[in-house]
Structures are given as C-alpha cells and as structure tokens.
Amino acid sequence: MLDKIKAGWRGYRDSLAIGYRAHPKGVIAQIVLGLAEALLIPIALYLIKVMIDAVQTGDSQQAYLAAASLGLAVGVIWAVVFAYVKVIFTVLHHTVRVADRRIMELMGNPPGLDHHERSDYLDRVQRIREDRWLLGGCINQTAQMLRAVLVIVFGGAMLAQVHPLLLVFPLITLAGMTIARRAGAIEEDYLERTSAAERRRRHLFEVATGTDAGKELRIFGSAGELGARHSAAGRGVVAERNRGQWKAARLASWEGVISAFGMASGIGFVLYLAIRGQATAGDVILLVGLIQIIAGYAAGLTMHTVLVYKTAKLGARLEWLRKYGEASAGPARPVETPERLSNGIVLEDVSFAYPESKRPSLDGVSLELPAGKVVALVGENGAGKTTLVKLLSGFYQPTGGQILVDGQDLTGFGVASWRQRIGATFQDLARFEFTARETIGVGDLGAGFDDERVREAMARAGAGDVIEDLPGGLDTRLGGRWDDGTDLSGGQWQKLAIGRGRMREEPLLVLFDEPTAALDPQTEHALFEQFAEEVRAGRQRGTVTVLVSHRFSTVSMADLIVVLDQGRVAETGTHKELMERRGAYAELYELQSSAYR
After folding, report:
1. CATH of domain 2-325
2. Which residues belong to any copy of the ABC transporter domain (predicted)?
3. CATH code of the region 335-421+511-597
4. Which residue from 171, 260, 429, 446 has the highest number of Cβ atoms inside 10 Å of its Cβ?
5. Residue 391: CB atoms within 10 Å
C-alpha cells in the first residue's frame, strides 16, 4: 500500500514538473491568481455583511465605505478571473505540446521493442495514450485544488468567528474527498480491465479508416463486417466501463448526500443563531453565502481530487516507461565499440523466446558470422530469421547463450554506440513523409542531410534513379496526403528505405531483412549483387552483412548461407556446398527455380 502511495505521489510530482517546464511563468501566475481569487471572494462576502450591518445601525459612513470597497473588490475579482482564464489556456496549450513530446520520447527512445510487441506492455501503453490529456490539465487541477482548499480554510476561519460548531461543515469536505478518491479508483480499475478490448476497437477503426487496407476492404466488401466488429467491440468496452462508472457514481452519491446534509445543517444552525439574537442580518448573509461557496468549492475539490488521482496513476505509468527504457539501455560502463571487426560475430548457444510464445523462436543457435562476409539467412516463415536480426540489432537480449562481437559480449556495448555502427533496412519499412532528402538522411543524422552524402547513399543502394524520377529531386515533398506531396510506389518507398539504411559509410553490421519484397526479382538481384561487390571491396572494415530473403537466386551470391528450421540451424555453407549436399536448401532452391522455367 505504501509503495503504491509513493508511486502515485512521484507520478503526480512528475506530471506537475512537465507543466512547470512547459511554461514556468504561466504556472506561477495561474497559482497566484487562483489563490488571489480564493481570498477575494470571502472578503467580498464580508464587505456585504459590513454594509448590511452598517445600514441597519444607521452608520452611513461605514456603509458607503463598505460599498466602495465591495465595488473595488468585485472589479478586482473580475479582472483576476479574466486573467486566470487566459493563463489557464496558455499553460494548457504549452503543457499539451511538452507532454506529447515527453510521451514521444519515452515511447521512441527505449532500445527494446517490448512496449510495442508484448500485450501486457501494450495495455499499459494504451492507458498512457488514452489518459495523456490529463497531463495538460495537471497544473490547472492543482491550482483549482489549492484555490478550493484556501477558500474552505479561509471561509472556515470566518465561520468559526461566529461559532466554533460551524467548523464542522468544512470538515465534512474531507469525507467527500475520501469517497471521491475511492470512486475514482473504482472507475480507474474498470478502465484498466478494458485496455486490451479498447486496443482492439481502436485497431479496427484504424484498419477501416487507413489507406493500407483500403484496397482489400473494397475488393472483399469487408468494410461493413469491420464496422460491425468495431461496433461490437465498442459496445463491450462501453458496457464494462459504464458498469464501473455506475458503481463509482453510486459510491460518489454518498458524498453528495453528506454535503447536502452538512449544508442544510449549517444554514439551519445559522438561522438558529439569528433567532436567538447571536447573529446579525449581516452575519446571516455572510454565513449562508460562505456555506454555499464552501459547498461549491468542496464539490469542485472532490472532482479535482479524482482527476489528480488519475493523473498520478498516469505519471506512475510514465515512470514505469522511463525505468523500462533505462533498464534496457545497456551497462552503466559500456565497453567501447570497435572501429573495425577482425573476427566477426559469433552466436554461442543462443536462445530466445517471446514471453507469450509456446516455443522458442531461437533454440540453441551456435553460428559464426565472419568479418567481411555476406551471410544469408533462409528458411520458412517462423524459422527465426527476423528474431535473429532483432537480437543482432539489440532490440532484445537472448534468453539463453550469448552473442560475441570480436570476442566481446554484445550486451557489454552501449546500445546507442552499437547502433551507430549498424546500417539496416527492414521489410516493414517506415514511410517518412518528409522531403526526399530528409527521408533518406535520417539514416545518419550526423551527416546533417548533406546532399552529397544522401546521393552517395542512394548510389550505394543502387537506387539513384528514384531521385532522378522525383519532380523536385531531393526537395520533393513525399506523400500523396499533402497538397505539395508526391505519392510513390511501394518499390520506390523500398528503394528510399534501402538508401536510408546505407547512409552510414563505415558500419560494422549491415542488415537487410527482406527489404526488397516490393521489387521484382531482377531488380533485387542487381541490387544485392552490387551490395556484395561493395562488401568484398571494403573488407578491410570487416563489415558483416546479413541478408534475409526468400528468393534463392539472390542469396546464392552470399559467402555463407544459413538455413534455419524452427529456430535451429539446419545447414550452413556456400551455395555450391549446400547444393552438393542435397539437403533442405537444395530442395527449396530447385523447387523455387522450377517455377521460373
């Protein structure tokens, strides 16, 4: 319990820090203006009391003075309210921007991919996405709470001046806050229960409204079915969350009952004092007004308490995401990454299993990837090729065995340092809709989007023709969704991605994980033939090139071919050696080549 309270407090504190960093002056102004309003409202009520009592006693001078002071106080209150509202939106605008950037950093910076691929992590990430709006309002909720607390305390002190028993009414607000926090916890629990279902609903929405599935939806006429499933998933989520909200509402209704009882009791006691002659007419106006104001601010305090509680939970999730990123960031004192490879990369009895998988993706793999060689990975889908690429990239750590780079355990390197020496292109490439220069240049930010470096990378990728075909060359805005954008074919996007993966001039490891699936076999063959020649020409760097492809005509040029089968190494050797062995590789090669005859 204590650990949860500490985590919640840290989460709330960190959420506040995001708002403060976004606009420090605005945050200070918002809090000061809120507190000023909280003091001015009871003062204005007190001036009303003074004015009424002065009129009753015939003290015209005091009545005029109180009326003038009241007018001034009301004017200041309105000025404070207008300034307060303007500051609220200013701080909110800046905080939302900074909060979004913070979430982008926390989601994008962790070296691992667990939070993108594991369902239990995805549920937490889903709650962060759903509740991120709370970060923008955290400062406002805090300012509102401080304002409410000050009104209740200041107003309670004024009530106590008339009779100490009237202090009971402000104390009732504490019971309301406790009930509200418990009601908020119930609602939050139901939100967490439905995280996976809500992810499914959002996925259906994204599929139905995105461009990737648009052609298939229309050909198969499945848009209606998708809509029906989205509706069913939505009904389930709404029904479950409604149950939580009703349960919370039933509990929260007691807060209303308690507050109403306290308010009625307070007003009744004030009237009792007036009848007994212990309170003037001004006192009655003051006390009834204070009780109403305290009741209103107490209700607001209850609502803001719930929102702050939710914000604290969100902050705790962000803290979890930050710690997750730090835990996977590598050793505190990393070993220096070598400038070149002398021996290569060795896998010693490497195993890896995804948390929810029934069998390991890699099972006791021992393999040598020699320096300066092109190594091809082949095998059926699910054989473990992409998993091996992920381990080499540092996205995951082996669950068994180790990967050695020139004799040094890969986990001993700093993740960022190791990745600086990797060039990679993946099948599920990113379509960065920037200018062509930026889309390619992000492959090596250290090059500063230099035109010459970008063109050299595209030349190394054998894809310089793509730039020549663009209407504005490297300045062309990519993506058909923009007014000045140019849409590209799947093959053109893949060539740009290959160029992006070739931006680093002296990598230790080059990875090609089926990056040419949208290209015809002849183009793919020509591209990888050029890669192989370049690797062999630059073997003094010791670069290891790993190629994953289903096209055996392409992999035949590799120096070493590794056949994977159900997470294990079935065969290794050159194309000639494997063909002479007449094993699985030879069978698959002949089966595929026969289709082209």
Report:
1. 1.20.1560.10
2. 345-591
3. 3.40.50.300
4. 429
5. 23
